[in-house]
Amino acid sequence: MSAISSASSGTAAGSTSSTSSAVFQITGLSSGIDTSSIITALTKFNTQQITQLQSQQATITAKQGGWTTIQTDLTNLQTAANALANSNGAFNSFTATAANATAITAAAGSSAVAGTYTLSVNALAQGEQVASQGFSDPNATIQQGTFSVQVGTGAATTVTVNSNNNTLQGLADALNQAGGDVSAAVINDGSGTPYRLLLTSSKTGAANTITVTNNLTSGTGAAIDATNTVIQPAADARVTIGSGSGALTVTSASNQLHSLIPGVSLNLLSTTSQPTTLTVAGDTTAAVTAVQNFVTAYNQVRDDIGTLTKYDPSGTNSGVLLGNSDAVQLQSALSDLISSPVAGVKATADDLTAAGLSFTNSGDLALNTTTLTNALTGQTPGVTATDIQNLFALSGSTDNPGVQFITGGASTLATAGAPYQVNITSPATRATLAATAAPAASTTIDSTNNTLAVQVNGIAATVTLTPGTYTATQLTAQLQQQINGASALANNPVAVSLSSSGNIQITSQEYGSGSGVAITGGTAASALGFSGNPSASGTNVAGNFVVNGKTEPANGFGQFLVGATTNANTAGLEVQATLTSPGGANVTVNQGLAAQLNVLVNSYLTPSTGKLATINSAYTTQISNITTQITQDNNAVSQKTAQLQTEFSQMETAINSLKTIQNQLSAFGVYSYSTGTTSYSSSSSSSSGK
Predict the structure, then answer these.
(1) 90, 303 in Cβ contact below 8 A?
(2) How confident is the model at residue 640 (pLDDT cuts 50, 70, 90)?
(3) Residues 271, 277, 280, CA angle at the centre, nearest 5°?
(4) Helix (H) and strand (E) counts for the chain?
(5) Quick count: other Cβ atoms within 10 Å of Cβ 452?
């Protein structure tokens, strides 16, 4: 590696010199070589390749992140679209407003029907209050024993009065500590003997009178008559709906009426001196908010796709998805869907302009809330609230009034060409419980035969018939009034009638397997013709859908038939069958903009099989493959570096050996070695014989 050359002045290569002093010298490579730089240079190509792979991986990761943003946007858009696509959603919100809000407040649910009602509150339901005779001292001593109090047919509350609490106030405290349906207080009426025990029922209604069983008979204290005076009688609420001779008056044990007006709950606050109006109307606020949320979500998707696919001529600020065909196709599909007329909706309301929507110059949606509100409230000629609902939501119609379209789900497809066929193989039924014997032509009801324990739709209650003498028809009316007036059975009304044989029959107004009527006890059962503990139940509707000759199964829930979730066309399709015998109908289903958008978005968001899942999987595979390649290249660089380090180490060892030889030679004479030539000269002293 190092060439050897002469180090003596004026001496020719290969010549012999008589110089007596000798110096041995080695120059060139030595252990001071920068081997790290040499190795870096030798592995530069490999490390450049790794850097390029890491750059590719970062670019793919950024693209995957861009699609994650789009996925979040689509999820938000789907949520907003669902609020509009459901036919029982934002467009089926109602408000109920009473003109006299000091007398009536009301709340309306999705099953309410718009309209105006005339109401008069004739009386409020109230709980009974009874008071004892007067005492001169609230701590007056009373007799000892047991004291029981009961409200209506509820559970009795019993307390024990002994030497620790045998005062008027002690009895009140004992009753309050025991709980139950009665509260107790000692009041002062300002008379000569002003202190009275006041018992107040927590239950309202004429049937909920207070009954006291007074067994305070021992000791030297004063006797107490807890029901000496009825301060406030138990009473039902009475409300008249309508006016004139045809008005109807209903009673309720509670001041909350849930079944007088469909879908509306009334809260009675005070009586009225004159009729007041109750207006049930669509809640435009909910619909406007839902449409605005839809606009915001749509614009977010569109704007984010625009940012992710934008082109920057300088090349420094282009979107990570520039040139990505999947992103461009999604944006185009959204725009095309939103701007297209909706099939099945009348021409005056088949596009977004009917709902106050328009496109800005940038392509975003903009909402004019005034236009939308006017359309929802019927102030736009040729456009109704139903039209706006059909513009967005899934809608449908049938050719048989006994089978009505109700709603559909995100997977319910619109009919293409022929309508879907609905087959009702077994109509839903209600529970009807018939007595085994007819009531007498004249029946007297008194305290010995006035209670009936019933269960309606699985809810138990005990009702008390009003004492009196009744014909069979009057007795059925009294029974129906008491069952429907029971607060425990609110929203579970029954119809009580006489069968063709004259027997009393009780029919639940609910359809399906949840419908039930049972008699579980009571003193009035025999007088009404019931024996034992009879019960009856209803059945769900049964049937299916047929699409292009293929049967798709359905499940029955009361009168409602719902397509199975696995159906190809009718998944989630719901119809109500009020038929009384097997039959059928044809149903036509239309998808509004939001419903169509749901189908499109679902095709991207469906786990495992959706388009986003496919895109994400492809990116994940690419990233994984590059990671594997980087790992392999790093291993190759490590191996090459290790090999070079070994070779350079061996070279250093060889050089060190040469240095050792140099040092040994220097002890014997002068040898000069040069890095530039292969010659050497010797200057050792010797005798010439030539």
Answers:
(1) no
(2) confident
(3) 120
(4) 11, 34
(5) 25
* Residue 602 contacts residue 78 (beta carbons within 8 Å): yes
Nearest one of 394, 389, 358, 365 to 376, comparing CA atoms:
389
The answer to whether 465 and 450 have CB atoms below 8 angstroms apart is: yes
β-bridge pairing 394-398 and 129-131 = unpaired
Given 2.60.40, 1.20.950, 2.60.290, 1.10.150, which CATH number is that of 430-537?
A: 2.60.40
- Cα–Cα distance measured from residue 174 to residue 166, given in angstroms and rounded to the nearest whole number: 10
Task: Please check whether residue 481 is in contact with residue 468, taking contact to mean a CB–CB distance below 8 angstroms.
Answer: no
Question: In whole angstroms, what is the distance from residue 671 CA to residue 411 CA?
Answer: 98
- Specify whether the CB–CB gap between 383 and 348 falls below 8 A: yes
| Nearest CA among 237, 199, 164 for reference residue 490 | 237
Measured CA to CA, the distance from residue 370 to residue 418 in angstroms comes to: 38
CA atoms within 13 A on the CB side of 600: 22
Distance CA 124, CA 237 (A): 4
Q: Which residue, chain included where needed, has tokens 């010439």?
A: 688
CA 126 to CA 237: how far, in whole Å? 8
Q: Rounded CA gap, 8 and 5, in Å?
A: 9
What does 305-317 look like in DSSP terms, one character per residue? HHHHT---TTSSS
Give tens-digit pLDDT for 586-633. Answer: 999 998 898 889 889 989 998 888 999 999 999 999 988 988 888 888
Nearest partner of 266 among 119, 426, 60, judged by Cα: 119
Q: Report the run of H or E that residue 279 belongs to, with start and end.
A: strand 276-282
Listed residue (157, 160, 164) closest to 141, CA to CA:
164
Region at 511 (left for phi over 0; alpha for psi -120 to 50; beta for the rest): beta
Position 410 scores a pLDDT of: 76
**Fold type of domain 129-232:** Immunoglobulin-like (2.60.40)
Domain segments of the chain as ranges? 94-124+237-282, 129-232, 430-537
- Longest Cα–Cα distance of the chain, Å, equals 172
